[in-house]
Design a protein that fits this description.
Distance between the termini: 13 Å
Helix content: 25-40%
Oligomer: single chain
Number of helices: 6
Radius of gyration: 20 Å
Length: 282
């Protein structure tokens, strides 16, 4: 049987360290896993033949994530599965520390950056808004709203059934190209053409089939490339909620984020075990 492979991609230093710790865990006493001599972030086993390789991207954003996805699935290197592991924010304080599969993802970025006068300070400040026509299919904007992508492997309708077998819940993601530090407005907004991020977060949350709604900066780029390359069934995104946008007092420090991500590696271990065991030989 040829060797099968799983690549795990991380975006920042805390995520990198969490997966590095996971690979060390997997090579513990009595384990069949061994580090690869030619790559300190790659481990393998012989029965059955599997390789797990960590790819620390150390860069964030939809474009960087999409580029990495394309690189991993080039004609010479097509892994059996790629898992993206990272942090996320939420408007729900209760979700901090929870791990989710990304089931669906929408994009909140296309809009306008303008200036407005701030009279009290007698200066200009930037005003960022989102074009409603790219988000809302009921908006008469002469364009088709951006598609909401489905991650087939992580959704609750997946043929793999990973949410059911691993016990990991599924979330909807709103992907941005900015670090969003505002909470959703309390009421669903209905302005004519322009939404603030607070408006957009509130409205987009109502469109999700999943109760948990997360905010991060990579999943839309990953999903768009996976769709174009027709490899969506081989891509999985796992997110740990490390920040709450609603209650600033609960926002985590870098140290707290690190702890939550390191704890979250246990969920990745469960997923790896489930995927590998389904070969029928693990």
């Amino acid at each position: 049987m040829p060797e099968q492979s799983i690549n795990i991609v991380t975006f920042n230093a805390n995520e990198r360290d969490a997966i590095d710790f996971l690979l060390k865990d997997m090579c513990g006493n009595g384990s069949a896993w061994r580090p690869k001599h030619d790559n300190p972030r790659s481990i393998s086993r012989t029965n059955p033949k599997w390789r797990v390789t960590h790819e620390p991207l150390e860069a964030q954003g939809n474009v960087m994530a999409a580029t990495q996805t394309a690189k991993l699935f080039n004609p010479r290197n097509r892994p059996d599965m790629v898992i993206f592991y990272g942090c996320a924010g939420s408007n729900d304080t209760a979700l901090v520390g929870h791990v989710f599969f990304v089931g669906t993802v929408a994009y909140a970025s296309l809009g306008t950056v303008d200036d407005e006068i701030e009279p009290a300070a007698e200066r200009l400040r930037e005003l960022v808004t989102l074009k409603r026509k790219w988000l809302d299919e009921t908006m008469m904007g002469g364009v088709t709203p951006l598609v909401v992508h489905v991650f087939e492997t992580g959704s609750d309708t997946s043929s793999r059934g990973l949410p059911a077998t691993t016990g990991i819940d599924v979330a909807h993601v709103i992907a941005t190209d900015k670090v969003v530090k505002v909470a959703a407005v309390l009421a669903t907004p209905k302005p004519p053409k322009e939404w603030t991020y607070s408006h957009a977060l509130a409205w987009m949350a109502t469109q999700s089939k999943y109760p948990a709604v997360l905010i991060e900066m990579e999943s839309y780029g990953i999903a768009a490339i996976a769709e174009a390359l027709e490899i969506k069934e081989r891509v999985l995104v796992i997110r740990v909620v490390t920040d709450c946008l609603v209650d600033k007092t609960t926002s985590t420090s870098d140290e707290s984020q690190r702890e939550l991500l390191i704890d979250g590696r246990q969920a990745v271990a469960i997923v790896l075990d489930e995927i590998i065991s389904r070969t029928g030989e693990g």
